[in-house]
Write a structure and sequence with these properties.
Strand 14 and strand 15 form a beta hairpin. By secondary structure, the protein is α/β, with parallel strands linked by helices. About 30% of the residues lie in helices and about 25% in strands. The relative contact order is 0.11. The termini are far apart. The protein has a six-stranded mixed sheet, with helices on both faces. The chain has a five-stranded mixed beta barrel with strand order 1-2-3-5-4. The chain folds into three domains: about 60 residues, Nucleic acid-binding proteins (OB fold (Dihydrolipoamide Acetyltransferase, E2P)), CATH 2.40.50; about 140 residues, Rossmann fold (3-Layer(aba) Sandwich), CATH 3.40.50.300; about 70 residues, Probable gtpase engc, domain 3 (Ribonucleotide Reductase Protein R1, domain 1, Orthogonal Bundle). The protein is globular. It has nine helices and 15 strands.
């Protein structure tokens, strides 16, 4: 039989096939091959009546996330709060870099808008990102049509109201939520496992909250590709390997000076590039000491 893993818990994999969910385990040979089944995997499996099934083969994946461990994703709803915690454009760009690198379509949802005295600043930020090509949602009504016929993963820093949003989308899930710690300015980790749920004509996944985000972009070329507006401009740079920092005839810097490139995004690009270079230097020093 063939199906999709919709939940992984305590060594068991719950596989959905023909509107039926089967409890399975992975065969031992997966461990020998260094393979691990993940939520979202399409698999071949065996299932006998009144007995535990076994996963026999894992189909090829179109994409994957390491943290959380989930695969074959169509889009990611990135939840950013307008307040408590304050909107963090740097963190949003980290999420976007990860998703661009993984070829996962981002959809940005802004929570806690009711806590703002004015939406003017948020509207200006929204307009900037939409000019790049990203879609923003301010309400549940805006978001729900985008979920149909897609596998959507919900991502967000701890405390932005991710579980609260998912409970509004599907109250029957009754996901655990946690209050914000006023002392620390962040929320407690409340989500326990990754699962796929069928709602609003699609499948959605809740994922553990983040207090920080690790992404897998580790070179200037991939970082360049992960900023759509910089990637587009870079085709006109004099040097193919231009990092848009010091090189002459750089189309990105020219666009910045002309006001055609958003300074905030360029600054975040430079910060991420610096972090990549620092990690490389640290790695080189570590290797030399061995």
């Amino acid at each position: 039989m063939q199906g999709r893993i919709i939940k992984s818990l305590a060594g068991f994999y719950y596989v959905e096939a023909d509107d039926t969910v089967y409890q399975t385990r992975a065969r031992g040979n997966f461990r020998k091959k260094g393979q691990t089944p993940y939520v979202g995997d399409f698999v071949d499996f065996s299932a006998e009546e009144n007995s535990e099934g076994y996963i026999l083969a894992i189909h090829e994946r179109k994409n994957s996330l390491v943290r959380p461990p989930i695969v074959n994703i169509d889009q990611a709803v990135v939840i950013m709060s307008a307040k408590e915690p304050d909107f963090n454009g740097n963190l949003l760009d980290r999420f976007l870099v990860l998703l661009e690198h993984k070829n996962i379509q981002p959809l940005i949802y802004i929570s806690k808008l009711d806590l703002l005295n004015s939406r003017a600043d948020m509207d200006a930020i929204r307009a900037r990102y939409e000019a790049i090509g990203y879609h923003f949602c301010y309400s549940l009504e805006e978001l729900l049509p985008h979920l149909r016929d897609k596998v959507s993963v919900f991502m967000g820093q701890t405390g932005v109201g991710k579980s609260t949003l998912l409970n509004k989308i599907a109250p029957e899930l009754d996901l655990e939520t946690g209050e914000i710690s006023e002392t620390l300015g962040r929320g407690r980790h409340t989500t326990r496992a990754v699962s796929l749920y069928t709602v609003h004509g699609g499948k959605i996944a809740d994922t553990p909250g983040f207090s920080s985000l690790d992404y897998e972009v580790d070179n200037a070329e991939d970082l360049n590709e992960a900023f759509p507006e910089i990637r587009k401009l870079s085709h006109s740079c004099k040097f193919r390997s231009c990092t848009h920092t010091h090189e002459p005839s750089c189309a990105v810097k020219e666009a910045l000076e002309a006001g055609d490139l958003w300074q905030v995004r360029y600054d975040n690009y430079l910060q991420f590039l610096s972090e990549i270079e620092n990690r490389r230097e640290t790695y080189k020093k570590t290797v030399k000491r061995k």
